[in-house]
Batch of 3 targets.
Target 1
Amino acid sequence: MLRLSNLFLRTLRDDPADAEVPSHRLLVRAGYIRRAAPGGFSWLPIGWLTFQNVERIVREEMNAAGFQEVHFPALLPREPYEASGRWTEYGDNVFRVVDRRDADFMLAPTHEEMFTLLVKDLYSSYKDLPLSLYQIQTKFRDEARPRAGLLRGREFVMKDSYSFDIDEEGLQRSYEAHRNAYIRLFDRLGLPYVIVSAMSGAMGGSASEEFLAPIDVGEDTFVRCDGCDYAANVEAVVTPAPDPIPFDGLPPAVVHDTPDTPTIATLVDFVNAHPELRHPERDWTAADTLKNVVMMLRHPDGTSEPLAIGVPGDRDVDMKRLEAAVTPAEPSPFEEADFAAHPSLAKGYIGPGVLGTNNASGIRYLVDPRVVSGTSWITGADTAGNHVIGLVAGRDFQPDGTIEAAEVREGDPCPDGSGAPLQMARGVEIGHIFQLGRKYAEALDLTVQDESGRPVTPTMGSYGVGVSRCLAAIAEATLDDDGLCWPREIAPADVHVVIAGKEGGPQRAAAETLAAELEAAGVRVLLDDRAGVSPGVRFKDAELIGVPTIAIVGRGLADETNPTIEVKDRRSGDRVDVPLAEATAHLIETCRS
Ligand code: ATP
Ligand code: MG
């Protein structure tokens, strides 16, 4: 039994100054966690119990699916990560350490390499496969923006699984098995989630889906189609490209003097305001313009390269989509010094005329998939104050390729056939499953013998759940104005018994008896037996801590003919008076249903 009189916990009236999101504020205020470092948290007793509940559910569902638990160190040697290329690919995102003999180590951001090596160590035949292993382990990532408490830590707990199969069908089956286990596990965790198509990022590989909890403070944006079951992280949205248009008969491109039009808005106003530049039938819009944005790409090996991106002028470049498209390289804005080093770029008037590896700037030029051959654009003419009208893709310029970097907008047509408008929402990535393929097995030389004794390279899947992040996501999805509000399986206790009577009154003894009986029946009890604390403070703390059932042993006890206690449902706020004699049975029933 947890007793508030001696529990290592202090609830706080005020929000911590550094907490940006409600779950972080409440987990600190209710005494679950304390900040230890930027992106690092210490767990207090009720926080750790809650964490262990999440971890237990994750473990039970992994075991039920037949996956076997192992455990790796978090301190990992350099060599395997060198072999896979990730020692450099991870760049600044990984914590690196050096031992007393000057050997390099890293604090594990994820464990693909180690699992691959472990299987290589022990297995040698196709008969040993399929195999799925997992661990629940602390990961370290030097996140650029540690924020939102446990939602994005620099040290956090992940459940990571890896599957090993001999062929594609096997991988598909292992992937499905993990997907189904994740569905069961997130259903049990009691938080809403959406399964969306995803990019596999730095892990490499192909088929990939994310489990997102739709929460406004989430950093991921996803789209859902009204007309079909398409759902995708915006990073993974593939823009439907229109068919190419024949350019016979299109008028030649003409350069015009368009002074003081460095932005799309000023340009559109200008061309609409000048009769000789007007569109023959309608007003020009930003969608008629081609905006060219130059970025600097920093590669993991430290080299840099400029990249020009052409998008329809009514859309911005979405940095997260761009980052996903160019990973492991990292994009950053072009600086003044970069412009100085590329004098063919006329800032504010950059056009395809100088872009592309065969042109004056020599800068690689990738365009939005909507910029298909035969589309005609108003765009920069590469000298200050000048634009060109009617520049036709495929006729007047040849990009080096396409890139998915333009923002996705609510109402965009669904790429998956139906064409119905897309809905947009924010979410937190709580799980990620993907088919890695043979990247790691090849890099680390994992082979097994097939039926005819020939060596074959297994194909792998990798599957993660953010255990500590899930706890915060559950808090976020369930909290209310008064505090945390846990699903029963997650909560640190089933019943929060509040003693609300005068010191020396009958309430204390009755509450002690009730708590002991509940405990004996296997109900987890948190008893507020503190001395000298007002009922008001006790009620507020009970709401804040968020145990699903609150039992108040108070005034009702004074009724000599029918002494009662009050049972309150933390979520609905519903209250019922229950005769003291039936209280234990009533609460046991409540906790079981
Ligand atoms: P994100 O895009 O949020 O940075 P990720 O795609 O880099 O996450 P994965 O490599 O797919 O993360 O890791 C598997 C799971 O680990 C994620 O789905 C997420 O739940 C969790 N996770 C990742 N980074 C963090 C973090 N900094 N803090 C807490 N949990 C995390
Ligand atoms: Mg991910």
Target 2
Amino acid sequence: MPKEIVLSGIRPTGFLHFGNYFGAVKNWVRMQDEYDCYFCVVDWHGLTTHPDTKELRENVHRLLSELLASGLDPEKSVIYVQSSIPEIAELYLYLNMLAYKGELEKTPTFKDKVRQHPNNVNAGLLTYPVLMASDILVHRAVKVPVGKDQEQHVEIARDFAERFNRRYRDVFPLPYGFNYGEALTKILSLDGSGKMSKSANEMATIYLNDDDDLIRKKIMKAKTDSGPTEKGMPKPDYIENLFLLMQIVSKYEDVARFETDYENCSIRYGDMKKQLAEDMVTFIKPIREKAVSIKNDKTYLTKVIKMGEEKARANAAKTLKLVKEAMNLNYV
Ligand code: TRP
């Protein structure tokens, strides 16, 4: 039986951080053994909000290196750059005819972007979900691992697939959002202000590229308080987050010891952060070093990019052939 097709995309508008690693990339790495996976650096999507392309090449190379260092394997998955696949743009054109201005305008992510970039409300931003649907449908993917914030885009992609199938012919299987278990591990920002993210406070975000001392500095600055004063007091979310980080990178005994200290109201957050900082350094260091060495190996990186392009185009071309036949766009 052929394996189900998984597809996900990541914008090259920031670098990988610990939240991406645990919220997304680690799951992609696991999916590689069970599914036919496509992972795409979506540079066209990046252009909707970041039209300055001076650093794009450098950024795409770094992001790819970090993804590879995190365990994405070009022998198992198809890892490619969106703009090298013209079939995505062609499908985007066809799907645009099935997408209504009204529905695109009322997409919450569009409204957010309009608020954030009131002077750059370009048509690409409006049709962002159509481009994302093209990414997914061009490979006839059915499982789309995304976070909560992108689930609605996957629903829109499903609507377009249904609309196309009904209007022309059954070409697309219907895609769904997908992840292991119920909830993804959600890592919070170290300053206690919501999700760890690329755009927020850099000092509260641990990047896979941070050097040892920077990691230590960021962890030591993480938000804490004067500690619990009564047994059984619930942990505030920024403390819960430090424990979560520790559960990921530290030894079981160390986590257990600080849990007991918390329980007894004798916890010293300074000591906890020192331990966490050292364990985080040990965790990040090999990934960072691997990413740097991949990024410096231009021959290898070029090979990976070309191989991904070849495989992704071959598969996308098959879909476009079906699409054009279904639409009667075949004249010879
Ligand atoms: N819009 C997604 C984000 O901002 C990125 C993306 C583009 C994507 N195309 C995709 C994700 C296809 C999953 C599938 O995170």
Target 3
Amino acid sequence: MLIEKVYFAIDMSQSIVLFGPPGAGKGTQADAIVEATGKPQVSTGDMLRAALAAGTTLGLEAKKYMEAGELVPDDIIIGLIEERMQQDDASEGVLFDGFPRTIPQAEALAEIAEVSLVISIEVPDDAIVGRIVGRRMDPDTGDIYHVTFKPAPAEIAARLIQRKDDNEEAVRTRLTAYHNQTSPLAKWYEEKGLLATVNGNQAMADVGAEISAVLN
Ligand code: ADP
Ligand code: ADP
């Protein structure tokens, strides 16, 4: 039997995409990838939440989509990314988290930055809802916890928040959006020879080990 091993050339000036359904563990795994590659994390979800918290026009425009679990329109997202990629720390490539989520976004990205690797974290739908509903965030540090799978230390438990869209109804809408609009991107990137899949349905440390094997 021929065992094929695919090697990804990680060019230091190129960007990496962290891909997967909501709750796949993208945010959880991002820190280690940032540390390993030196590329800054660019999370469109975090950028939209920051815009919303700052009360900008863009944040208010995005709010209704986010709370319903629908995708924010492509032109808003592409505008955000264009602006972000002009900052100095993006010149050697970044780690995209939660972007692109549609084919038009991926086409726009191809004009803005060079992507050398797409890491797809695969998790079945039936594991997603429990992850999302149990997710908690530390507003001071941005750290991600889970009531069962990653409980926060007692001293910070009181300040944890739950995202408004982390409820069962919005998660179902987000999963539908993922399957209809985002998952076709996996094939799109696979055809370009850029897709590496990892099993996200295992302990966080084991997912991390698979990702570092891809990076090395
Ligand atoms: P994403 O950024 O892809 O939406 P997160 O990293 O925020 O996902 O993870 C969603 C929730 O699932 C969080 O509460 C996180 O603690 C938890 N989680 C992440 N990875 C795992 C895993 N491998 N097993 C169990 N729970 C996980
Ligand atoms: P999760 O990883 O849990 O799905 P994110 O923080 O990535 O959540 O995104 C939260 C919400 O922000 C999404 O449900 C969507 O409304 C909006 N959003 C984030 N990134 C994008 C994107 N690339 N395109 C469209 N909408 C986005």
